[in-house]
Design a protein that fits this description.
Layout lengths: L1 E5 L4 H12 L3 E6 L17 E4 L5 H8 L4 E4 L6 H6 L1 H22 L2 E5 L30 H20 L2 E7 L2 E2 L10 H10 L4 E4 L5 E3 L1 E2 H12 L8 E4 L4 E3 H12 L5 E4 L1 H4 L9 E2 L4 H7 L7 H19 L1
Parallel strand pairs: 1-2, 1-4, 2-3, 4-5, 5-6, 6-11, 7-10, 8-13, 9-14
Antiparallel strand pairs: 9-12
Helix pairs in contact: 1-7, 2-4, 4-5, 6-8, 6-11, 8-11
Bound molecules: nicotinamide-adenine-dinucleotide (NAD).
């Protein structure tokens, strides 16, 4: 395939680019480097065409899409801090940006993988969230929910591009994907805790630390992106992608301390100080990935301690490089 990866210089995007090149595909990256970095593609710089521009720029998007048969759409404003602090800009990227990518893809391409998020389930704290489960979102006036609202509408637009125009759209909902190259700078919990531990700083947990999440290694997720978009049975459907080992944030911090050999301490920061007054979080979020397993054999294989060790090695290298 000749694939366009929007957001390809980001954390997940750069791993996807390497995976696609490894399979022998041609890859074009479109990224405005707002949270991504050219360094993320350093190992494959000679093999990939990188367009430095925004999905919101019609001309750039048109040129990047033409000649590609497949689009992997990952470009987005991500991270709770970004969404809460820059709400309008985030909405433009996550809503209007996706609309523009879908329009361009339906003119030029055969299929598109739309990277949504487990955030669409909002506060639904069910044991194991299935793709057809209800979404429970807080007030639209709480900026925290604007990411989930935008991703939900993205899914709707993607679905209707498949139904009405025949574009082969697959929707994926990743749950807490982690691994090398993910920065802690935008509020992602694991790299943030690891960076604090490696710097000998206290580890900060928001709220009481009882929130439960399932982490999944990026290397387990990106092969599912390519398998799903190439499988016509997946078109028009949404797929959860995530791990199954559930852990509280308190326990995660303890495991980070153990793996990094740091002494802590762990301190708690109230949500309204960490984000904004009235901030709402979800108590737990754990995926049911049966649908992806049955169709393409998806399984999260990497254990949490191995993930933490890989993140710690990567963050240590990044911090050394920044000195
Ligand atoms: P990331 O910030 O590393 O990647 C996003 C990339 O998009 C960055 O390289 C950024 O520069 C680029 N970008 C942003 N706005 C753009 C624009 N207007 N034009 C072109 N490029 C733009 O974050 P990530 O974690 O790799 O996220 C990738 C995708 O996966 C996003 O769509 C995100 O919503 C989704 N996702 C991530 C997770 C996770 O756990 N990391 C979970 C669920 C969903």
């Amino acid at each position: 395939m000749r694939a366009l990866v929007t957001g390809g210089a980001g954390f997940i995007g750069s791993h996807l680019v390497e995976h696609l090149l490894g399979l022998g595909h041609e890859v074009v990256v479109l990224d405005d480097l707002s949270t991504g970095s050219a360094d993320n593609l350093a190992a494959v710089a000679d093999a990939v065409t990188v367009v430095d521009g925004s999905i919101l720029d019609e001309d750039v998007l048109e040129r990047a899409t033409a000649g590609c048969d497949t689009v992997f759409h990952l470009a987005a404003a991500v991270g709770v801090h970004t969404i809460v602090n820059r709400p309008m800009e985030s909405l433009r990227r996550n809503l209007l940006g996706t609309q523009a990518v879908l329009e361009a893809a339906r003119r030029h391409c055969r299929r598109l993988l739309l990277v949504s998020s487990s955030e669409v389930y909002g506060k639904n704290a069910k044991d194991s969230l299935g793709e057809d489960d209800d979404r429970i979102l807080g007030s639209p006036l709480k900026s925290r929910w604007s990411y989930a609202a935008a991703k939900g509408l993205d899914e709707l637009m993607g679905y209707w591009c498949w139904r009405e125009y025949g574009l082969g759209v697959v929707i994926v909902r990743p749950f807490n994907v982690v691994g090398p190259r993910q920065s802690g700078a935008f509020g992602m919990v694991l790299p943030h805790l690891v960076e604090q531990a490696l710097s000998g700083l206290p580890l900060t947990l928001y709220g009481d630390g009882s929130q439960r999440r399932c982490f999944c290694a990026v290397g387990d997720v990106v092969p599912a992106f390519t398998a799903l978009v190439q499988d016509e049975r997946a078109h028009g459907q949404a797929f959860n992608l995530g791990g199954t080992e559930e852990v509280t944030m308190r326990r995660l911090a303890e495991r980070v301390l153990r793996v990094t050999g740091s002494a802590g301490p762990v301190v708690h920061v109230p949500y309204d100080r960490a984000y904004e007054p009235g901030f709402e979080d979800m108590a737990r979020r754990c995926p049911d990935t049966t649908r992806a397993r049955e169709l393409i054999g998806f399984r999260a294989r990497t254990g949490l301690d191995d993930i933490i060790a890989a993140v710690a090695a990567d963050r240590a290298r990044a911090m050394e490089g920044a000195r």
